[in-house]
Amino acid sequence: MANHPFIEIVNDRENNLKNVSVTIPKNKLTVFTGVSGSGKSSIVFDTIAQEAGRQWNSTYSSFVRTFLPHYKRPDADDIQNLSTAIIIDQNPLGGNARSTLGTITDINPFLRLLFSRFAHPHYGDGSNAYSFNDPSGMCPKCQGIGRSYVF
User: Fold this and answer.
1) CB atoms within 10 A of CB 45
2) Angle at the Cα of 127 (from 124 to 130), degrees rounded to 5?
3) What residues does each domain of the chain span?
4) Is 70 exposed, middle or buried (CB count within 10 Å of its CB: 0-12, 13-18, 19+)?
5) pLDDT single digits (tens) 1-10
């Protein structure tokens, strides 16, 4: 599955789509453009993101799945070669000094878990050692903000 160069969607009927089939190259930056109502969001969010989330959640136990968001199966005949997806919503980004791509996309907990299993922290221990919001994981010089202020 990982060796296939394309994501294939067959007869997508989400929202206003009428049996749209599309082949999307993998490992490339793909941009969906078009007039309002042409189905861009239906393909990206309601088909690809829904199915990627559904497949990701299916890797967890039944007990864990009760605590995860529910993703419905998209209304399409077939979706092939889909990889894990990180979806950044269309809403304007807000935040504060501690907001990062990792916090906005909610990937930080996965990265902290990965690092806690395969790396050795300079400070602290466990997955919190990789959290810039936790005193045991934040940089002692900048306190996790990425900039040092001298008063």
Assistant:
1) 15
2) 65
3) 6-80, 101-151
4) exposed
5) 458 899 999 9
